[in-house]
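Recall that a protein's primary structure is simply its ordered list of amino acids. Everything else, from secondary elements to tertiary packing, is in principle encoded there. The following example makes that idea concrete.
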Amino acid sequence: MFEIVDILMVEHSLIRQISGWIRTDDSPQFGEFRSYVKDCHIEIEEKLVFPVILESIPDQMANESTRVKQIQADHKLLLKLSENLDRWIEKGDQSLIRERAPLYIRLLKDHNANEDKFVFRWWNPSDHSHENDVIREASSVIENFGVDRYLAITGASKELFEKMFKK
């Protein structure tokens, strides 16, 4: 059975692949990619993963809790940068787009690497019924975004999606 952190790590791999070829300009494809990051990937991490992880870190390991919170704060920076990119694209400010879009990609990749290394190791739901609820809620987030959009953006197959989310 896939756990939610397994799914997110698969997504991190897909994001690394996508970031190697996606055009970071005012293309609709880049906008769709950022929409997926915001409305699916970060949404799932913020609502379903980080709260559980922060609860699972023992009180005597405050430094680990601080590190996880710092990594979580990257989400706000990524969202703000994506929002600014939308504004610059709308204004046609090509110089800012050329300068900041690669920064967005680099920050996203570094952030995901830090989650894989320092955050997800703390995932330890107290029971498997909780994990099933989390998977169901994550699937719902993706369904609200659009499964076909999710598959098109990530390059994941329908079969992988069904296996990850037990459809």
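The CA atoms of residues 70 and 85 lie 23 Å apart. The chain has one domain: 4-165.
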